Amino acid sequence: MKIVSRNEELLRDALTCIPQSSRRTSLSSCNKLIRFEDISAAAFKIQCGVQKTPCMYSRLSKQYGMDIYLKKEFLQYTGSVKERGVLYLLTSLPQDQQRKGVIVALDSNFSMAVAYHASELHIPVFVIMSTSTSPARVKMCREYGAMVISYGTTAKDSQTHARRLAQENGYLYLEEEDSAVYLAGLGTVGLEVYEQVPKLDAVIFPAGGHCGLLAGSAAALKHLNPRISIIGVESESFPVLQQSLKAGHPTEDQACNNHNFYGDVSGLCFGSNSLQLTGKLVDKVVSVREEDILVSMLRLLECERATVDAEGAIGLAALVAGKLPELKGKRVAIVICSGNLELHLLQQCIARALTLDNRVCRFSLVLSDCPGDISKLLEVLAREEARVLDIKQERTFVTSELFTVEVTCTVETRDKIHTAQLRNALLERYPMAVWTER
């Protein structure tokens, strides 16, 4: 199988014909390869259905010593870049299939995008979700216009039921995969980034198992300028893409974490087409820790007022972790691809990130239970300009001498240096103070 593309040596023979697995019954375009012309056609066809999101210079540039431009794909209507591939996929379906309808399972950005765009195109759409799905996500899918059915206690139950309904009623069962049509839609991100930021040196994408955005955009960018460095970033906890590239075929990492914090970042590698495109066109794939992702989410919230999830923040996390020193002084674009973080997780993530960033700290000390001692402690904190978030006193279970009180205090500081100054000031006055390690 060949890649047809004008003057593009890097794309030539990037893929070979690989039959689709029998369990993937939704699409039959595995024998068609992505071309640059396909991506251009997708950009033209979906231009009225998705946002041309901004790619803006970031205030984080000075902090990390490079010109950083953020491609804000989380501003799409459903909060995800997946809309691009889904819209092009749906508009490419035969009219008789559009009349019959489509069906998806699982709580994912892909399913949300299908629910919204199928409804906008007046295609009947059914979403099967397990009973453990967040009520907020169920409500959102219904508001997009989909018929949502709760079935089963696990994702596997929902998928099985969706396939059965598709077979019985003639619906097209859709699941995220690396068909040429879907990759071409996702690849339009690369076209826009190239147009919006001149003289680019590198573009950073989220990777993980679902590397369609990385593969499709790499095809577009490398065609336009082979000198642009394409970098993928995935989690250290499940480096599915790096394992698959090393093995030469998609692998299923049994250690994948299904916690909804990670979303699509922790998904299984879903296609040989994307994998081979990635191996051919992507210059580097790095992995980052969960701590780096959380701090990246905090940076984006503070500096860009962008509330994103793990998939959206993982590209910046590579810079937070110092994994790309070669980009110092360069012009770099980062694709912020998703902002679908559930509210209860947002509070936990930000609180944890502040601790990891040495901005919230806790210490304990024992004072005599006399009037004025607590006031003197608060005077020290005020003098050091630390903001008290919480203070607790324990008298009953104190193991030291009688008539003493154990005080545990949680405070907010400006940064790591400020935290160190506060610690030194407290230890100078209270040598027995104990700091809680993060």
TrEMBL record:
GO terms under biological process: isoleucine biosynthetic process; L-serine catabolic process; L-threonine catabolic process
Start and end residues of each ACT domain: 362-438
Pfam families: PALP
Cofactor section: pyridoxal 5'-phosphate
Keywords: Lyase, Pyridoxal phosphate
Gene Ontology MF: a single term: threonine deaminase activity
Protein name: L-serine deaminase
Provenance organism: Pterocles burchelli
